[in-house]
Amino acid sequence: MVSYDALTVYAEKVRFDNSKFILEAQGNVVVEDGEQRIHSNNIMIKFKGGVPEIIRN
Q1: Phi and psi dihedrals of 15, rounded to 5?
Q2: How confident is the model at residue 16, as a pLDDT?
Q3: In sequence order, what are the residues at sequence separation of 6 or more whose Cβ sits closer than 8 angstroms to the Cβ of residue 39?
Q4: Quick check: 38 and 45 in contact, CB under 8 A?
Q5: What is the rounded CA–CA span in Å between residue 7 and residue 53?
Q6: Is residue 36 within 8 Å of residue 12, measured between CB atoms?
Q7: What pLDDT does residue 2 have?
Q8: Beta-bridge partner residues of 42
Q9: What is the pTM (predicted TM-score) of this model?
Q10: Which domain range does residue 27 map to?
Q11: Helical residues (DSSP H) of 1-40, grouped into ranges
């Protein structure tokens, strides 16, 4: 599990690329942001100016 501000990501495996500010989550992924819940096998989230943006699911 990874949490940032209102965003919470649950997954079997999570990696964060510090140089690109991209979080990759794999395996039974659930993303919650306080307004919605997304289920996926894998997902990529980019942080632009501290704001998370889903770029692939």
Answers
A1: -130, 150
A2: 97
A3: 29, 30
A4: no
A5: 10
A6: no
A7: 94
A8: 26
A9: 0.87
A10: 2-56
A11: none
Paired tokens of 1: 């599990």
Per-residue pLDDT of the chain (57 residues; tens, 9 = 90+): 999 999 999 999 999 999 999 999 999 999 999 999 999 999 999 999 989 999 987
Q: What angle do CA 29, 35, 36 make, to 5 degrees?
A: 35
Q: What number of helices (H) and strands (E) belong to the chain? A: 0, 6
> What pLDDT is attached to residue 12?
98
What one-letter code names the amino acid at 56? R
Give the total number of structural domains in the chain: 1
Q: Quick one: DSSP state of residue 33?
A: -
Which are the contacts of 25, defined by CB distance < 8 A and separation ≥ 6? 2, 9, 11, 13, 14, 31, 42, 43, 44, 45
d(CA 50, CA 36): 19
Q: Which residue has 């690329």 as its token pair?
A: 17
